[in-house]
């Protein structure tokens, strides 16, 4: 195995005057490591386990693979390539992948290091074997569930051979209780707004040398802008108990910056295992992050053992504050109107998603609502740099049961743990349009679960605004809305009808505006005490939504509809949508090139708040 990336060297003990380098981020994660890595992307052996007999027959011990497949890639594409026909499946799919890698050579300086295997995302159900022995994730899972976030395995030295065989079994079903977003299921069949499944080996997998005692690739950041104070939430992984020091240094983002703006040490004694630790430090003179000035700082976080050995990660962050205050949203204590657009990346490549993000900025958007989908984490980094606010959503299950709620909760916790670094992420939706919560109006258990998760997010992640169920059926408890925003989905191609709906909405009519009542639970009386967002509108060009097909007329409609929004006490809007995807043909951006089909700046507000 060759570890030869030019930006990386072996981790080693550093002197006190260590000067951090500026690195590009080549892997789909939020932080950088000063270490070696090797992508395992490329050609893998591939097999379709049609009868789900591979576990019983011991395929992990040895199997003759009939096909090959390119990792990363969707199961559907791999089946299609193997069979020479469409790779759709209608109930359950089980596939196996296998490849070999050469054991890396170790020298004396690497005695404090170990080999780690990381999947950027894979699922929905993943099992992994090394040389026929099943691996457990760092969290202790024999089976990893979930399809949108990364997970890792530590490879024990005694399990490694000169040439190693890595075997992966991936299973998924149309089960409506699993988080699926807008992929089809047993409840919602493909067609219209429901899409082809896209599952399996969907993100890169890599090997890397990591320290036995280290900071993991999870950094949560909460900034208190008035005090220029930053709270850092760090995850520590320890194999050797003892005395350690966490050292945090904050630098200007400029690669030439060598003197830290702030530095602080935090001595602590650590036991073996994994734990989270919050520390706070002042960053005097720090400027705030905003869409107009996306000012970022570089964090160098080090874990130093009693002998002075340093394990290091690096990330960037920005200081910002988001609030729902009265009828409006405030960013850094300044009122802001959210000029948003709905974004469904679907099967877009990372390169295409980059083009989309730049195009949405060019359209005049300051907010992108990433619609119930998991995306490459580097997109969050790009939003940080471009100054795009992000509204993130948990991919929803399609049925409301105790199990679906448990799956939903676990997916939320996995996602939020890995996205807490980014100043661009400002809003989270728990559900959308009752998907996975169809009984929200009638089932107190469903409402209680959503209320509990809303309260959890408020306490654990105060840096975000949280929406309970976007579009309608928000929850009122004792007359208090359990959502930081009151959102409505309004679709009509008729301008006069549009004016009427907006007027009724701002007057506080909770019924008869959206497809269903806006609030359920206890009585709720809207009197501008919470920001009102039209979080979906337009859809011009999609036949079921109505509206013109030609881009010039569509652009004029958007301009007129947008003007009506800004004439009223509305805090923001989200035009639907950025690009065409499958049957939905209402995009404003070419999904392949990123070119605009409408004039630049069309979605930028012309009226100052």
State the gist of this model.
This protein is α+β, with helices and mostly antiparallel strands and 609 residues long.
Feature tags:
single chain, 609 residues, alpha+beta, Jelly Rolls, Immunoglobulin-like, TIM Barrel, 3 domains, eight-stranded parallel beta sheet, seven-stranded antiparallel beta sheet, 8 helices, 35 strands, 16% helix, globular, disordered N terminus, Glycoside hydrolase family 2, Ig-like_GH2
Report the mean per-residue pLDDT as an integer. 92
Task: Give me the number of helical elements.
Answer: 8
Q: What does the largest sheet look like?
A: 8 strands, parallel
Q: How big is the Rg?
A: 25 Å
> Could you give the count of β-strands?
35
| Total count of domains | 3
Named CATH architecture of the largest domain: Alpha-Beta Barrel
The percentage helix is 10-25%
Could you characterize what this model shows?
- This protein has 609 residues and is an alpha+beta fold.
- A hairpin with a 2-residue loop joins strand 30 and strand 31.
- It contains eight helices and 35 strands.
């Amino acid at each position: 195995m060759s570890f030869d990336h030019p930006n990386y060297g072996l981790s080693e003990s550093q002197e006190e005057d260590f000067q951090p380098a500026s690195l590009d981020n080549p892997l789909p994660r939020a932080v950088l490591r000063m270490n070696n890595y090797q992508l395992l992307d490329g050609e893998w052996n591939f097999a379709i386990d049609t009868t789900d007999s591979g576990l019983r027959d011991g395929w992990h011990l040895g199997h003759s693979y009939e096909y090959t497949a390119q990792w990363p890639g969707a199961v559907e594409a791999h089946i299609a390539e193997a069979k020479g026909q469409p790779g759709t499946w209608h109930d359950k799919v089980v596939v196996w992948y296998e490849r070999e890698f050469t054991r890396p050579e170790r020298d004396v300086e690497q005695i404090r290091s170990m080999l780690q295997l990381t999947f950027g995302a894979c699922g929905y159900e993943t099992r992994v074997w090394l040389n026929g022995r099943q691996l457990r994730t760092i969290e202790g899972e024999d089976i990893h569930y979930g399809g949108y976030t990364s997970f890792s395995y530590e490879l024990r030295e005694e399990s490694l051979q000169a040439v190693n065989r890595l075997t992966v079994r991936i299973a998924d079903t149309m089960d409506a209780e699993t988080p699926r977003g807008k992929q089809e299921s047993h409840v919602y069949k493909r067609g219209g707004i429901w899409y082809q499944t896209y599952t399996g080996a969907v993100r890169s997998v890599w090997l890397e040398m990591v320290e036995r005692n280290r900071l993991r690739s999870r950094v949560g950041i909460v900034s208190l802008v008035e005090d220029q104070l930053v709270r850092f939430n760090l995850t520590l992984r320890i194999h050797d108990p003892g005395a350690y020091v966490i050292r945090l240094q904050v630098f200007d983002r400029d690669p030439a910056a060598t003197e830290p703006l702030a530095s602080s040490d935090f001595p602590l004694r650590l036991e073996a295992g994994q734990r989270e630790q919050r520390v706070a430090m002042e960053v005097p003179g720090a400027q705030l992050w905003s869409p107009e000035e996306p000012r970022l700082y570089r964090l160098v976080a080090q874990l130093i053992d009693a002998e002075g050995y340093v394990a290091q990660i690096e990330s960037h962050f920005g200081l910002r504050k988001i609030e729902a205050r009265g009828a409006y949203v405030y960013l850094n204590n300044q009122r802001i109107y959210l000029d948003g657009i709905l974004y469904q990346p679907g099967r877009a490549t990372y390169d295409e998603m980059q083009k989309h993000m730049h195009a949405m900025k060019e359209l005049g958007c300051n907010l992108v609502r990433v619609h119930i989908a998991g995306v490459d984490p580097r997109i969050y980094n790009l939003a940080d740099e471009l100054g795009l606010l992000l509204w993130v959503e948990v991919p929803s299950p399609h049925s409301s049961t105790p199990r679906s709620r448990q799956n939903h909760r676990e997916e939320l916790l996995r996602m939020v743990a890995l996205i807490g670094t980014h100043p661009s992420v400002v809003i989270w939706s728990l559900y959308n349009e009752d998907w996975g919560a169809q009984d929200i109006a009638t089932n107190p258990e469903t409402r209680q679960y959503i209320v509990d998760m809303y309260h959890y997010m408020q306490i654990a992640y105060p840096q975000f605004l949280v929406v309970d169920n976007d579009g309608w059926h928000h929850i009122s408890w004792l007359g208090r809305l359990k959502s930081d925003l009151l959102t409505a989905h309004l679709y009509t191609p008729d301008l006069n009808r549009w004016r009427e709906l907006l007027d009724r909405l701002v007057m506080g009519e909770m019924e008869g505006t959206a497809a269903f009542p806006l609030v359920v639970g206890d009585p709720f009386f809207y009197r501008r005490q919470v920001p009102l967002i039209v979080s979906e509108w337009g859809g011009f060009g999609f036949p079921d939504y109505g509206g013109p097909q030609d881009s010039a007329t569509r652009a004029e409609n958007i301009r007129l509809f947008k003007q009506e929004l800004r004439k009223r006490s509305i805090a923001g809007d989200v035009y639907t949508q950025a690009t065409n995807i499958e049957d939905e043909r209402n995009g404003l951006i070419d999904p392949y090139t990123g070119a605009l089909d409408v004039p630049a700046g069309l979605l930028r507000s012309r009226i100052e708040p």
